[in-house]
């Protein structure tokens, strides 16, 4: 009899502990976990050609390396009225017949699948971005664009 009471007491104690330990729902556990990280309260403003410290030579990185089977996605500064993305062939591997000049896009963002863009694999291009402002002033930046077969 004493053993049965001890077993019953043990089962009730374990059940009580489990119910207290599991009283938090999944949302509470996720919120508690996420609370350990800080969220940035500042909003990052997109660069604009109207910014006082705008530098046209910082519109593009110096070099982009892409696979022939990939997509290239770039964004130009805001507040332009005209955008032009072009690529000019700089060098190619022997035997590669590549176009000399390729117009890639005319919007603020450039998103191209390399295979269908007119660019050839095993080539190096000079990527050129030209942005025209409302005052008709043009801002230009260039970068090397290297197209290979795989990365």
Characterization of this structure:
The chain is α+β, with helices and mostly antiparallel strands and 151 residues long. The chain is 19% helix and 34% strand. The protein contains 2 helices and 7 strands. The protein has helices at residues 2-21, 26-34, and strands spanning 63-67, 71-75, 82-92, 101-105, 109-113, 123-132, 138-148. A 5-stranded mixed sheet has the order 1-7-6-3-4, with no helix packed on it. Strands 2-5 form a two-stranded antiparallel sheet. A hairpin with a 5-residue loop joins β6 (123-132) and β7 (138-148). The longest helix has 20 residues, at 2-21. It is elongated, with a radius of gyration of 29 Å. The termini are far apart. The model has no long low-confidence stretch (mean pLDDT 88).
Task: Write a compact overview of the structure shown.
This protein has 151 residues and is α+β, with helices and mostly antiparallel strands.
Explain the layout of strands and helices.
Elements: H1 2-21, H2 26-34, E1 63-67, E2 71-75, E3 82-92, E4 101-105, E5 109-113, E6 123-132, E7 138-148
Parallel strand pairs: 1-7
Antiparallel strand pairs: 2-5, 3-4, 3-6, 6-7
The class by helix and strand makeup works out as alpha+beta
Provide the succession of SSEs.
HHEEEEEEE
Shape: elongated
Unreliable stretches covering 5 or more consecutive residues: none
Give the helix tally: 2
Q: What's the story with the biggest beta sheet? A: 5 strands, mixed
What fraction strand? Answer: 25-35%
Q: Give the helix level as a range of percent.
A: 10-25%
The spatial strand order of the largest sheet comes to 1-7-6-3-4
**Radius of gyration in whole Å, from Cα?**
29 Å
End-to-end distance: 74 Å
Integer average pLDDT: 88
- Based on DSSP secondary structure assignment, what is the total number of beta strands? 7
């Amino acid at each position: 009899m004493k053993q049965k009471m001890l077993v019953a007491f043990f089962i009730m104690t374990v059940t009580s502990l489990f119910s207290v330990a599991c009283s938090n729902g999944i949302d509470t556990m996720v919120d508690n976990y996420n609370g350990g990280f800080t969220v940035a309260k500042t909003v990052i403003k997109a660069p604009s050609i109207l910014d006082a410290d705008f530098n046209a030579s910082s519109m593009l990185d110096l070099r982009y390396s892409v696979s022939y089977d990939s997509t290239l996605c770039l964004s130009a500064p805001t507040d332009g009225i005209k955008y032009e993305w072009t690529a000019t062939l700089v060098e190619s591997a022997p035997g590669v017949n590549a176009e000399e000049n390729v117009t890639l896009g005319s919007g603020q963002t450039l998103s191209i699948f390399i295979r269908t863009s007119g660019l050839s694999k095993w080539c190096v291009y000079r990527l050129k971005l030209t942005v025209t402002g409302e005052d008709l002033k043009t801002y230009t930046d260039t970068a090397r664009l290297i197209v290979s077969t795989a990365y």
